[in-house]
Amino acid sequence: MSTRTVVTAVETFPLEAPLLDGGYGASKTRLPVRAATLVKVTTSDGTAGWGESFGPPRLIAAFLAEQAQALLGQPVDIRENLILDRLSLGYHHTSGGPHVAAASGIDVALWDAQARAFGVPVAHLLGGRLHDRVDAYASSGYVTATRDAAEFRDTMLAHAADGFTSVKIKIGLTPEEDRRRTLASREAMGDDGLVIVDYNSNATVASVRRSLDRLRDLDPYWVEEPLPPEDTAGWRELRDLHLPLSGGEALYTRYGFRDPIAEHRFDIVQPDIAKCGGFTEAQAVRQLAAAFNLRLSPHCWGTGVAQAATLQLLSAVPRAPFGMAGGQPLLFEFDQGPNPLREGVLATPVKAEQGTVAVPDGPGLGVEIDEGWVRAHRLADHRVLVR
Predict the structure, then answer these.
(1) Which of 145, 192, 226, 276 has the fewest Cβ atoms surrounding its Cβ within 10 A?
(2) Rounded-to-integer distance, Cα 103 and Cα 120, Å
(3) Please, where in the chain does CATH 3.30.390.10 lie?
(4) Is 330 buried (19+), middle (13-18) or exposed (0-12) by CB count in 10 A?
(5) What is the radius of gyration, based on Cα positions, of the chain?
(6) pLDDT tens digit string along 108-129?
């Protein structure tokens, strides 16, 4: 008679990396630090799994400490019930926020641990590995303190020199500056490249229309987060733009995505594994999107752990509704902003080659954590260990 594998220890690693020159970000705000919280789950068979939670580490670590207590002794293979039960019993906390981001890191770690125990990549548990490589876009064009046009243009040219033919840039500043940024990106990527524009919800229906009137001729591949997610009426109004809209990075769980997907508020669905509820909820969101014939392109703006998890999800996304020819590429968001955490947490960081990224093929997330580096950089004033 076999003994069921259970969780025996949970350890969290709040991380921060200060940025130079006032940081960088989007039109809504600049961030002075890059931050994340890693989660390590150890099981009764000696396997360790890693996950990542998005959000302010001092806040997320506290939620993780509370959730970790309840996780001890629980079977590793029970994941969906873990999240749904927590949402149901804690309905007064709503289905979104830092408590869900914390649960996301735990969920990813549980999937990683079980896949490692089986000796297979997580993609094998998500339905099977369908893609060995995926196209990547350079997530860049951030807003800096200077907002220097020449510096921005040089950044776009550097991405092209690195082999990227697709880029996402931050706009939502002024219509004139939005056009200058988009034009510089189009010139760098060429006529056949992809240029994605991201407002990060720093707009109204009227300001989005005015901005897009100035840059529509530059063929934006999709328009990301033109409005805050709660502006449901505004999203409906923007359907007459006849440009692909994307959103979802600020949504949590299948419940948060249900109505936007059912109402076709956007064309490209963008769950973030490190905040939406981990693999469990990202997989549910993927299936919801498929049911409504919408594309999936996950948001990814974290460390190498979040990158590896996102690549595992992408590698299991079916080709449907497209056939053997034509269709749209699966796109991996490859953050290009300075972030010591992104490369530091992995023994071998994720790399792009000529605009594509190989899906890690090792067990679990497919990557190895540089645990010495992670422990050395954990916030000294916020250690959480549950045993």
Answers:
(1) 192
(2) 23
(3) 7-120+369-386
(4) buried
(5) 20
(6) 999 999 999 999 999 999 999 9
Q: Helix, strand or coil for residue 234?
A: helix
What is the length of the chain?
A: 387
DSSP state of 358: E
CB contact at 8 A, 245 and 268: yes
Outline which parts of the chain fall under CATH 3.20.20.120: 124-358
The second-level CATH assignment, the architecture, of 124-358 is Alpha-Beta Barrel (3.20)
* pLDDT of res. 384: 46
CA atoms within 13 Å, Cβ hemisphere of 51: 37
Domain 7-120+369-386 has CATH 3.30.390.10: yes
Residues 92, 93, 159, 299: which is the catalytic one? Answer: 299
- Nearest CA-CA partner of 25 in 156, 271, 178, 199: 199
Residue 30, token pair as written in the block: 């600049």
**Is 380 in contact with 160 (CB distance < 8 Å)?**
no
Strand pairing class (245-247; 223-224): parallel
Question: How far is 12 from 106, CA to CA, in rounded Å?
Answer: 10
81, two tokens: 């019930």
d(CA 214, CA 178): 8
User: H-helix or E-strand containing 124?
Assistant: helix 122-125
Model confidence, pTM: 0.96
Q: Would residue 299 show up in a list of annotated catalytic residues for this protein? A: yes
